[in-house]
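> run fold Outer membrane efflux protein
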Amino acid sequence: VRMTVRTAFLRHEEAIERVRALELSVRQAEENYRIMQNRYLEQLAILTDLLDADRLRLESQLRLTTARTEVIYTYYELQKVCGRL
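> ok
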């Protein structure tokens, strides 16, 4: 039982760390998109460059949302293993 609780706890901690890392990734993707948008408006980049930056931004946001969902899931798994559910 202790090992199961420990494993569930570690999975939850890993999920939280993944969210923190992905939050940074989203900020970087948003900054990249902002830069590409400015370059596009100044006619220094083509539309496909802007669309690629937008796609990367959306993908990073989706990964973050998925990771946040995993945090919730692992939290309830931990609660279940601890007998609180």
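The helical segments are 2-41, 47-81.
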